[in-house]
Structure to design on (499 residues):
């Protein structure tokens, strides 16, 4: 048998140790069938599978035999397993649905005791772990991880070989492009990855480096099904972010930190950033630009979706979201306005739910080894628990202040270009001087307001439209001067300046 993945070695060890009952947590039935078929052959055992629609069936090589009569009911199937004439590996598909039935649980426990003196192993194969208390001490649980990059590369090579052999499409991939496609598909099941590669080929009868975006978009399906995360398809680049020179340089020096070369060099995967700052100064835009610049998918965690009315479900929701995002790694995880999601984490007004969710999040931020780059943003530092600011949760804490005059010029240039206007035709330097204490978002809205006025007047946008909008719009830093100044004073000695 070829080199086994770690989880399969664990299953193989448990089978050799004559553990009678195992529980495999996985969506990938076909993959498990193929892998355990190899294990069964290596041990000289038969592979038997059960489903509610077919009952028990014995595999003969790669072929399924005829269903065994009167075994479609779970209790009848379990009783028949004890009578199998040969040592077997028995897969019970979606059997977790029946573990709420006391008679099924009792029968399974008795079967487990009977199999201890034999060489047959029963494995429940299910996408979720639902184990009644009665079985907790009798069943060993094994999580089957998603395919590795090596598995996906092997799949890609097989698909490329088949389409080239049948002359159905053209495959034009360099080794680097193939590695990028495999990285993009990481986090999908083999079936999902196969569908994604097939979709890329069907689009233009070609598989090449340009299909990277399509593969990344397929991951949005994984996110959508979780119900707790949002997938962002973004095209914002670092050139769309005005100023923030120090932050941009810091990010640029880490853009290849998720590569295999970085691992071989001994670098750990970067943990992430906490971005504090005045509202509208580019924190969210920076999160989107990081994903585009690093060619990674961007996923947003809405802490509001984590909280649920059922006791214990909020913590489980967070763990579910973490599992989903880790399955997509490498990925950028954007936690916007994190302080709002953690409100109440130090109090008792919600029976400790926020504190438990916060504790789970802190532990993951500290201990995670998966290549998930977390970008958390916050506007109100007084609402942030001090534990979140401790070194080790994030690689760095940056403060994004109001843009300087030079940065405001850059922002005006960017916004005018986005609105299909030539910045050379506008007094950008004068506009920058007249917008002291304006944030980047407020400058964007000045340009939009000027465009509205020009459109209403039936004329092209002029400098006068922009200057008028500047005079009519008081910036947030003026209307909330005390709050903004308090934030800037706090950040001066506690964070790293982004500019």
């Amino acid at each position: 048998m070829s080199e086994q993945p770690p989880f399969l070695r664990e299953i193989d060890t448990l089978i050799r140790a004559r553990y009678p009952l195992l529980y495999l947590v996985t969506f990938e039935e076909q993959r498990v069938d193929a892998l355990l078929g190899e294990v069964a052959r290596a041990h000289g055992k038969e592979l038997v599978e059960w489903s509610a629609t077919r009952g028990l069936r014995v595999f003969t090589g790669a072929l399924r035999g005829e269903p065994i009569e009167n075994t479609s009911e779970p209790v009848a199937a379990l009783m028949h397993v004890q009578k199998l004439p040969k040592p077997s590996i028995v897969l019970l598909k979606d059997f977790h649905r029946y573990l709420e039935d006391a008679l099924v649980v009792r029968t399974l426990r008795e079967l487990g005791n009977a199999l201890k003196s034999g060489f047959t192993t029963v494995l429940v194969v299910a996408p979720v772990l639902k184990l009644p208390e009665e079985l907790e001490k009798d069943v060993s649980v094994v999580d089957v991880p998603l395919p590795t990059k090596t598995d996906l590369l092997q799949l890609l090579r097989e698909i490329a070989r088949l389409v080239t052999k049948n002359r159905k499409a053209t495959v034009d991939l360099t080794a680097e492009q193939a590695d990028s496609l495999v990285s993009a598909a990481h986090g999908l099941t083999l079936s999902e990855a196969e569908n994604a590669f097939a979709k890329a080929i069907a689009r233009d009868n070609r598989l090449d480096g340009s299909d990277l975006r399509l593969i990344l978009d397929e991951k949005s399906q994984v996110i959508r099904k979780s119900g707790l995360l949002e997938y962002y398809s973004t095209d914002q680049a670092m050139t769309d972010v005005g100023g923030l020179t120090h932050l941009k340089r810091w990010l640029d020096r880490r853009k290849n930190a998720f590569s295999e070369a970085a691992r071989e060099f001994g670098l750990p995967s970067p943990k992430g950033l906490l971005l504090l700052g005045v509202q509208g100064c580019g924190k969210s835009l920076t999160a989107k630009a990081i994903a585009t610049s690093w060619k990674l998918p961007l996923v947003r965690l809405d802490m509001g979706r984590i909280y649920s009315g059922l006791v214990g479900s909020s913590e489980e929701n967070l763990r579910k979201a973490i599992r989903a995002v880790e399955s997509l790694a490498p990925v950028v995880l954007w936690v916007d306005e994190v302080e709002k999601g953690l409100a109440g984490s130090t109090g008792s007004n919600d029976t400790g739910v926020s504190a438990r969710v916060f504790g789970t999040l802190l532990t993951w931020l500290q201990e995670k080894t998966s290549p998930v780059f977390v970008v958390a943003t916050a506007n109100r530092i007084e609402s942030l628990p001090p534990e979140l600011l401790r070194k080790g949760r994030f690689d760095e804490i940056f403060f994004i202040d109001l843009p300087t005059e030079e940065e405001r010029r850059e922002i005006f240039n960017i916004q005018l270009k986005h609105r299909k206007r030539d910045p050379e035709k506008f007094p950008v330097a004068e506009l920058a001087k007249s917008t002291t204490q304006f944030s980047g978002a407020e400058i964007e809205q000045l340009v939009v307001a000027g465009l509205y006025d020009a459109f209403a007047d039936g004329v092209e946008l002029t400098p006068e439209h922009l200057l008028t909008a500047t005079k009519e719009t008081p910036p947030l830093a003026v209307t909330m001067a005390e709050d903004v100044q308090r934030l800037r004073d706090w950040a001066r000695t506690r964070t790293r300046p982004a500019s």
